[in-house]
Amino acid sequence: MSACDFSAQRLFVRDELAPGAECAPSAEALNYLLNVLRLREGAAIHLFNGRDGEFRATLFDVSRRAARLRVAERLRAQPERADLDYCFAPLKQARLDYIAQKATEMGAGRLIPVITHRTQVRRINSARLQSNVIEAAEQCGVLAVPEVAAAVELPDFLARLPAPRLLVFCDEHADLANPMEALAGRTARAGVSVLIGPEGGFDDAERAAIRRSPNVVRLSLGPRVLRADTAAVAALAIVQAAIGDWRSFDAPDS
């Protein structure tokens, strides 16, 4: 299978994909293809659905207000979604959009909004979060589109966490230390959850509850105070470099 062609236009669809299949773009996608990109009959586009891989397709039956897509050969096989959860206290909308996009780019497999005592926003627009995830996947060649989970209160999140799963707790009160060394010897075999709190951080009771988790590592993100959206990128980069898919493919799991 070929590598991602970043010059190609990519479109996420919900239809099943296989050579010879046909599908109709959504109204929003149709407007983008015909009126923004100004594609015409026979134009090529790459399709993916997060399940079947990436396929070449062509536009046909194009009119001013309609078009269909005919699926041709598969270009890339579907990879498994990473067992890497990005767990975050929701922020105001523009910064939440940024978090969804960057977590997708950084290889998160699931986004979990976690409601804490100091959480700024308690009503989550899941459809908008999913739209941002899909947009990032379209732009960055991602095939394993992350799942957007329902919001959960912190105590429930901790209670549901499987004991073997590694919880990476980004703790502003952790002693300054090399975060790569903090993860040395840890394993990602049972999955990883990266937990970042709200602006103002977790309160004392929450921090104590998190630290009681059976497989938790406290991570310092350096000597400066980071905004929650900046901390998301920093933490995911550290985890991917230390125990994730940024390592050499033939390196042993640490």
Brief overview:
The protein has 254 residues and is α/β, with parallel strands linked by helices. It has seven helices and twelve strands.
Describe the structure.
- With 254 residues, this protein is an alpha/beta fold.
- It is 29% helix and 22% strand.
- It contains 7 helices and 12 strands.
- Strands 6, 7, 8, 9, 10, 11 and 12 form a 7-stranded parallel sheet that branches. The protein has a 5-stranded mixed sheet with strand order 1-3-4-5-2.
- A hairpin with a 5-residue loop joins strand 3 and strand 4 (54-60).
- Helix 2 packs across helix 3 and helix 2 (93-105) packs parallel to helix 7 (228-243).
- The radius of gyration is 20 Å and the shape is elongated.
